[in-house]
Write a structure and sequence with these properties.
alpha+beta; elongated; single chain
């Protein structure tokens, strides 16, 4: 139990209570030890007070504790006092324990100046300064093609395009204004597509002078700055909020308020782009043993095992609605279709079943498999299996010898494992290439528009799981392992999220905490953002569509499709054949999301030494491998691996440039987004922002107050009874003084041992001077007078014999 101020106060109160109990008991013993058995009457009154102020009468069970002959009212008063005393004693110890101090927000908002807060981490230090060369757009998959809005071109009779004034890669102002026009009705921190820039870039120029007339222009380049995938946190880095709990990045040029002693909090609306992945189990596994080989531990006895992917195949051809992708993107249906096609083509290759062709009226006329059946495979021409790696691939069926390399290079006496499979239906890698296209729903020749969402599909080889009883991270010869095969489909969506921040100002950007992130809530459908997607009227391979937040005026146009909803599935296209993390132009908002998905799905040939990425296969990171091994146990958690890899790649790929210090957008004053972000804000730039300051306050845990509440109740009850008796005239100070005097030990002994010495009803001021000198001996069985006793005739006493008694008589 951690000590708090309240607990310490309670402990102190307990010690004080112990001391307070100890003192009267100790002094009572001291008095008993020092008083003489023969002492004056007043001494015995004081001794009685000291003794009865302690608990010795109760501990020693003396006369004051008897119940015999004691009236009911006295017993009631005695127990009331005792109960109240006990409760107050307990309350004095327990009540302070409920006190604690905490930092809590104040009840009012204040405005504090916000200034740019640089990121001093590796990812911040490695982010170059922003360039003033602006965005550019180069269209055409194989040759330069005019982008939408570019009209300085020339076409001859044969349709050949030329650029007499050079290829203008700049983006027309009307296009840039369109895809940020919706910011005018948004919070000032919400970003547009023009607030997304490549984190690292190169400056190019066309040697032939065709592009931009030979002037410099920017192209995106990927450089890994830091690996965040395993952080399991929502953290700010230069230009971004990186969510490695759920996957996704938010765009924010970081500013923080002037420091407050206990910190401040506030909320912002930010643009997020987040990956969504759905994986489907093919119900096929690759099973093998490890053995010693020429290069150390190697895979051996590799088999493809039917876990129901063949035997329990649903024979109906799967479909999904690709024309309604913005309302329902159907990622599961896409991934399932890819898994189904992969399994069927594998079955045909292995001759497990038949297709529909001229010789067969229908497909699946036979099924030569059952759950648990294994199909031996050969590793000599395959590089997909790795016992210590997590792998993804864009090449479906890669575990098969689809190019018949074994049969072509084997003699007629070959005993190769794959020679057992005659491949009667001539299945090759070409057949498997259609799997990806049918999963994505759009190919290179489809037009760029709002329907053709940037979906990327791939096959996932999960991190191997040990099937015997050995340690799961020890790859020893003779151990048995299994790799699950999954089919996955991914897409990204843009969404406005509300982010709660807290800042205490002690360590720069590291002191900026993200307390919560959730999708922005809207009271009405009319309040939801308007998303626009460019209708390029060009093939996807030639031009990626632009997207962004648009205003009402862009509804119903031919060149822009507009929808009003919480989020937008981003359009785009990823070409497997020319996949690269680098870009040929400077338009990151339209490209990076699909480029990073493509990289996440091609770990089998994504060489970190060449591409400059982290090793997401985890072959060189056992900690990452352990995490991937855990996630690979099911398709639901396998999808999280893809999302985390995308998030890490995206965080290293792009940066957000919009924040509180950015130029505001209004309907009457739109920016030229291509030219405005020439410099990074500096520490001197400030803007007032409303925040909630935190203050230190004292709080109380009310459970600790129960004894105090009971004490108050009992004390209140006693007070009510006291006031009632006082009002009735039964409890008066005069009567109280009389009872005190009449029950005084010294006065009682003086009355009976020295009769007639003093009037028993005399006041203390009159009684004490006469009785103080008279001694009583209590050493015997009963008290007795220690001075000579003589009867005094009060009526005949003279002033000379006893002046005080004479005065009393005369006064009467």
């Amino acid at each position: 139990m951690a000590l708090t101020v309240g607990y310490v106060s309670g402990i102190i109160a307990l010690l004080i209570f112990v001391v307070r109990v100890f003192i009267p008991h100790a002094t009572a013993l001291i008095v008993v030890g020092l008083v003489r058995s023969t002492s004056p009457l007043t001494t015995w009154t004081v001794v009685s007070q000291e003794l009865f102020a302690s608990k010795w009468p109760a501990l020693l069970r003396t006369d004051s504790q008897t119940r015999v002959g004691v009236s009911r009212g006295v017993r009631y008063g005695k127990w009331s006092r005792r109960i109240a005393s006990y409760l107050v004693a307990i309350a004095s110890i327990v009540t302070p324990m409920g006190l604690y101090d905490t930092i809590r927000p104040s009840f009012r908002h204040v405005e504090r100046p916000f200034g740019y807060s640089p990121d001093t981490s590796a990812i911040g230090s490695g982010t170059p300064q922003r360039s003033n060369l602006g965005f550019n757009r180069i269209c055409g998959a194989f040759t330069l093609a005019p982008c939408p809005g570019q009209d300085v071109v020339f076409r001859n009779d044969s349709g050949r395009v030329s650029y007499p004034n050079g290829y203008d890669a700049s983006i027309p102002r009307n296009i840039t204004e369109a895809f940020e026009s919706g910011l005018a009705t948004m919070a000032p921190t919400v970003s547009s597509i023009w607030d997304i820039e490549w984190r690292t870039y190169n400056v190019f120029h066309d040697e032939d002078g065709e592009v931009q007339n030979g002037e410099d222009y920017i192209v995106g380049r990927y450089r890994q700055l830091e690996t965040l995938a395993l952080n399991n946190d929502i953290e700010p880095v230069e230009g971004l909020i990186v969510d490695t709990k759920n996957g996704g990045i938010g765009f924010r040029n970081h500013t923080t308020p002037s420091p407050n002693e206990y910190g401040s909090s506030w909320s912002e609306d930010l643009l997020f782009i987040e990956p969504h992945t759905v994986c489907v189990d093919t119900n096929l596994t690759l099973d093998y043993e490890l053995s010693y080989g020429l290069s150390g531990v190697e895979v051996s006895k590799l088999v493809l095992t039917d876990r129901g992917g063949f035997a329990n195949l649903v024979k109906e051809y799967p479909t999904f609605d690709r024309d309604n992708s913005q309302d329902d993107i159907q990622l599961w249906d896409r991934a399932y279709k890819a898994a189904w096609l992969n399994n069927v083509l594998t079955m045909l290759y292995l001759n497990v079943t038949n297709p529909r062709d001229e010789d067969h009226e229908r497909a699946f006329m036979y099924l030569d498999s059952h759950v648990g059946k294994t199909f031996p495979l050969d590793l000599r021409f395959l590089n997909t299996i790795s016992y210590d790696s997590f792998l993804t691939t864009l090449t479906w069926g890669k575990y098969l010898d689809l190019n018949n390399l074994l049969s072509k290079n084997s003699s007629s006496n070959s005993t190769s494992d794959d020679s057992r499979y005659p491949n009667p239906f001539d299945i090759t890698s070409t057949n498997f290439t259609t799997v990806s296209l049918l999963c994505k729903g759009a190919g290179a020749a489809d037009f760029g528009n709002i329907t053709n969402v940037g979906v990327v599909c791939g096959q996932v080889y999960g991190a191997a799981r040990r099937m015997d009883d050995g340690p799961p991270l020890v790859f020893q010869p003779g151990s048995r392992w299994s790799t699950s095969l999954y089919s996955c489909a991914s897409a990204t969506r843009a969404v406005i999220k509300t982010v709660d921040f807290a800042y205490n100002g002690t360590d720069g950007l590291r002191s900026l905490q993200v307390k919560d992130v959730e999708d922005k809530k809207y009271d009405r459908d009319e309040d939801k953002p308007l998303w626009g997607v460019e209708n390029t009227h060009m093939e996807l391979q030639d031009a990626r569509p632009l997207w962004g937040l648009v205003s009402e005026e862009y509804k119903g146009r031919d060149d822009i499709s507009v929808i009003q909803k919480e989020s937008l599935w981003l359009p785009g296209f990823f070409r497997e054949q020319t996949a690269s993390l680098n870009a040929g132009d400077n338009l990151p908002g339209a490209e990076f999301h699909t480029n990073m998905l493509g990289a996440a799905y091609r770990l089998d040939d994504l060489d970190p030494r060449i591409q400059g990425t982290a090793d997401y296969t985890a072959a060189s990171n056992l900690g990452m491998y352990a995490k991937w091994q855990e996630y690979s146990k099911s398709p639901n958690t396998t999808s999280k691996i893809i999302n985390l890899i995308w998030t890490d790649l995206a965080a290293n790929s792009v940066v957000g440039t919009r924040g509180w210090l950015s130029e505001p957008v209004s309907e009457s004053n739109s920016r030229n987004a291509v030219e405005k972000r020439a410099t990074t804000p500096t520490a001197g730039d400030m803007r007032e922002v409303e925040v909630t300051d935190y203050n230190k306050v004292i709080r109380y845990r009310w459970a600790f107050g129960i004894p105090a509440f009971l004490s108050c109740f009992v004390v209140g009850l006693i007070a009510v009874q006291m006031l009632l008796l006082m009002c009735l005239g039964r409890a008066t100070f005069r009567r109280l003084r009389l009872f005190l005097n009449q029950t005084s030990v010294g006065r009682l002994m003086g009355t009976f041992l020295y009769p007639g010495l003093v009037d028993p009803s005399a006041t203390t001021r009159n009684w004490a001077p006469l009785a103080a000198s008279k001694k009583v001996d209590v050493s015997g069985a009963v008290p007795r007078a220690a001075d000579p006793v003589m009867m005094i005739n009060r009526d005949k006493t003279t002033a000379a014999e006893d002046p005080l008694l004479y005065d009393q008589r005369m006064a009467q």
